[in-house]
Each structure stands twice: as structure tokens, then as C-alpha cells.
Amino acid sequence: MVQVLWMAFLVMLTSAATAGAQEVKRLEPVVVTATKIETPQERLGAAVDVITEEDLKAHNYETVGDALRQVPGVEIQRSGSLGKLTSLRIRGSSTSQVQVLVDGMRVKSPTAGSFDFSDLSIDQIERIEIVRGPQSTIYGADAIGGVVHIITKRGQGPFSATVSTEAGNYDTLRERFGFGGSYKIFDYAVSGSWLESNGQFRNDGSEQRAVTGRFGVTLPANGHVSFSARYNRTAHDLPVDTTIPTSPFFILDPDTKTQTETTILSLQWNQKPVSWYELNVRFGQFWRHLGFQDLFTPADVAAGNFDAFDSHSHINDKRREVELINSFHAGKWNTLSVGLEHRREAGQELQTGLLVAGDRVAFTKKIDVGSIFVQDELRLFDRIFLSGGRRDEDNNAFGKATTHRAGAVVLVRETGTKLRGTWGEGFRAPTIDDLFFPGFNNPSLKPERSESWDSGVEQKLWKNRVRLGVTYFENKFSDLIQFQSTPCPPGDPFGCPVNVAKARTEGVEFTSAVDVLDNLFFTANYTFTDSKNLTTGDPLRRVAPHRYNFGITWEPVRALSLFTQVNVISSQFESQSLPHNRGYHRLDIGGTYRIAEKRDGFPGLELTARVNNATDARIFEAFGFRALGINALAGLQARY
Hints:
This protein is mainly β. It has helices at 2-19, 53-59, 64-68, 136-139, 298-303, 432-436, and strands at 30-31, 39-40, 47-52, 74-78, 86-90, 98-102, 105-106, 125-132, 146-152, 160-168, 172-183, 186-197, 206-219, 223-237, 240-243, 250-252, 257-274, 277-294, 311-330, 334-352, 360-380, 384-395, 399-412, 417-428, 448-461, 466-484, 496-517, 520-533, 546-557, 560-569, 584-596, 604-612, 631-639.
């Protein structure tokens, strides 16, 4: 399949060469995440991808995780059916080494140190910015591999609204609504959704309900204040009790369940009173409650599960952030930004039946973090862009950490060539569980450290119809935190996390995008990742050496838009005691048909459809958790 798709790509290149008499006009994306202020993408040394609102609509994604699958260097791994734990890796980094933001607010769990993308609805997203490579100088801890930033849509123009209903196999249903607009100095956007599915096994259902809103006021002197709020409630059945090294890789569980409630608030004030000064102030709050129940029943014995007693968990995560960024612009040649940030993270946990019946663990801990960072961008002749930065972070749980970053870009506008490179340091802070969980903690942990660099070339050909890129990257990790099962000081009998491991990843990313015709668009990218745990000599767990992505969007007539997306993933190392997770391919297809345009008070009507895994391939994105076979979702959308 891969060879056939590459041949199709070459044919499209040839077609573009003959059809490319007319130059394609594309607006250069403006990115916020890479520098924390609006910066044209062509001036950034970091590798950045932007998923726009138009991309989300054209492909009718069910989840945010699905939307991220096509990004080079990114791996999405969902543990089973729709709604199950969804993890993200960038360039071989672990899931806890990638920072995730919603409207600038960190949303990773302070206790677990990771983020489950199934807990975030895809509603009201204006764009998703993905920055690959170390970003700890800008975002502090946990940005070793990169940053994923979900930015909420801002209301604009006259009032508009959408309502949609969709249904599919596995008893999947999705209902959505949204409205927004602006009136004089006010803007508003509100949306809500409900998504449910029964999955492929007994006790495999999921349900997600979400409400999102963003409200803003335009101020004099080029200012704006906005408040965004997002609430998600998910409830999942967990059908898999444990994985085993022989087929079919899992043992079913008839009664385990989990519920998550997430609330994200962000208040932002942006002001540019004069041309040489810009102020950005942000206050954010994050709450997450996780409930887990696994009852011991006769059905567990019949199924051969390892449960021997009831188990319950209640985890409350909380985070509060305050940030102030001052940016000083010296004409067109320099921008200096100085930022201050304070963050308080708290975790409260109650767990029963963790190891034996009647066992009970309860604790509450807080961590305070203060930081200051500075970054500078020097622009020479509108062709050379040099940047550098430093961050000093003080964490009252483990001490201080300092990171640096540098980047360079050279634009050769006559040939459409961009040369870029970055170097940076990063760190991942120990989580609240790592430091304080009774019986399994290690208060002496140090942060994980990294040093990374990449360099790349981007090239535009045939009057911007073909856009190609290649990037080499290398990451070195030290003081990696791993759990050891032997007794640890100060007397933890069951083991504890320790700083013991070193690792490295290196590889190459190839990207291409081709406007074959005005109504036919093709993308392809390939990521090679060579990873190694330098302590054990094994490859890193769940890091695929080879990853191919292909996409075709075609509009044969004005009312019809079709798409095809392909993911090809090579086999992945799991552990020395388990076999490799075999590779797979996934083919997704779908489209939108516009039945009627909006006019004279009548809504515009669209039919939407998406079919995931259209070839019904046997897929295990995460070892032991079988993904859904062919699954479709189709429906009707009205636009007012």
C-alpha cells in the first residue's frame, strides 16, 4: 500500500508541474504557541503545524485525537474503543513529556502527570497549534517533546448557529449545537455536544457531554478581554482487566467503570497601547475529578480476572495559574519579551482496596511554582531571524530548574527556501504521585532532563503549489523517572520511582503538500524515529520507528467535498517479556454534501459522513487494547 501511495504522490507532482501556471495564494499562518505572542510561521525556527477550524469541519473528526493523527512526528494511541484513554507522543518522548494547553491553560493532571485526550470534546476549536521540540524555556516543566495548544473560537460577525445530529454503528450517537457572533464591542461563542457509543465488547460503552463558551470585549487602545470556559463530563466502561502475552492479548472485565469531570477557565487581557509595547495577562483555573470503581463479583471469577476485592478511587486535581508577559518592539528588527508566572497545583486522592481488601490511602498535597523567562527575536533584512531565551523556575517540592533555547531562520525568498534550526534544554517535573503517594513515593526525586536540537529545510515549488520539508531531530534524556519494585528509602515496601534511566531518540521528518488542482489537495508525511533506552539497551516503549500519513481532499463539484486519510504504523516494542505490538494501517474516508445554501431565513443543510478504519483492519494502537473495526458516523447539519 505504501508503495502505491508514493507512486500516486509522484503522479500528482507531475500534474502540479503542468497545471501550475497560476500561483496558489495561501495566507501565512500566525502562531501564538511558539513564542507566546503572535508570530508569522515563516519566522519560527521550531517545527510547527496548525490544524484549522476548516480542517476540522472538512474531515468531520469525532475526537481531538483523530485530528492529530496526521501531524508528522506525533503518535496517537487510544486504548480500545471510542472514548478510551488516548495518549500522545511527540518524536519519541513519553506522554508525560508533552505539554497540553487549552487557551493557554495547562490541562495535564498534577497527580498523574499526563493528559487523556478523550476528556476533551472537539467543539468550538478555532485551531490547534502543535510545536515539536523542547519548549521548557517558554512553558517550563513537561514541555520536553513539544506543546499541543487548543485555542477556542472567538465569535465574529452577525449571529450564526449550527445544529447537527449523527448516528453510526456500535450504537454511536452525536448531537451538537453552537452559536456565536459579535455586537459592537462584544463577541460571544457558545457550543455544546453529546457523544455516546456502546463499543465492541460487553462493558465497553462511553458517554461524553460538553459545554463551551467564550465571551469577549474590545477595549480602546487596541485591547481585548476574553473569558473562556469549558466543561467536559465523560463516563467510560473499562472492559479490559489486564493484558497477557498470548492471543487475544486481554481478559475482559464486566463491571469496571470510570468517570471524569473537567472544568477549564481562562481569563485573558491583551493590550497594545502603542506600537512598541504589548501586554498580555492571563489567569486560569483547572479542576479535574476522576472516579474509578471495580467491584469484585462472581463474574470476575468466571472471566478469569485478577481482581480479588473491591477497588475505588477518587482523585481531585486543581491548578491555578497567573501569567504576565511584557513585549517590547524595537521597530521591525527586534522584539524582547519578559514574562512572570506563578502556578499552584494540588492533588487530593482517596483510594480503597489498592493492594488488599480494606486497604485505604488518602492524602492531599500542594505545589507552588514561580518562574521568570525572557526571550528575544532579532530580525535582519526580513530574511534572517535569530531568537533565544532563558527560563528560571522555582518549585517548592524539588528546587530550581533553568533552561535555555536558541533558534535561527534564513529565508531565501527568491527560491522559496527556508532554512531553520533550534536547540533547547527541557525538563519534566516529578508529579504529586511521584513525590507524595503513600507507600510508593520518593521525595528525593530530581526532574527529568533533556537536550535537543533539530534542523530543517522547507521548499516551495511550482509557484507555491508544492511545499516540501525535511527535518532532522535528536533528543537526549537523562534522570528519567522509572518505578522500581524493590523496597526504597525511606522504607516504602512496595517500591518507588527513582531517577535511573537515560535515553535518546533521533530521526527524520519528511513533509509534503501539493495543490494538484484548484479542487484537489494532497498531503504526505513520513517520520523515522530511532529510539533507545541507554540503561537497558531496548527501544523505547510504544515508539514506532516508521510512521506514514497520507491525505487527499477533493471537491469534484461545488456542493461535494470528499477526503481520504491513511495512517501506516510499524511494529512497536512493548517490553522484554511481551511480543512487539505489530504494525498496522488505517484508512479513513468521508465527505460533506451541501444540500442547500443558507438564504432568506432558511438554514443551509449539509450531509456529513466519516468512516474510520474502512478496511476493517485488526489494529492495536496500544498493546492489548483492540481498536474498533470499521466504524461510521453520518448525519445532517443545519447552519443558520
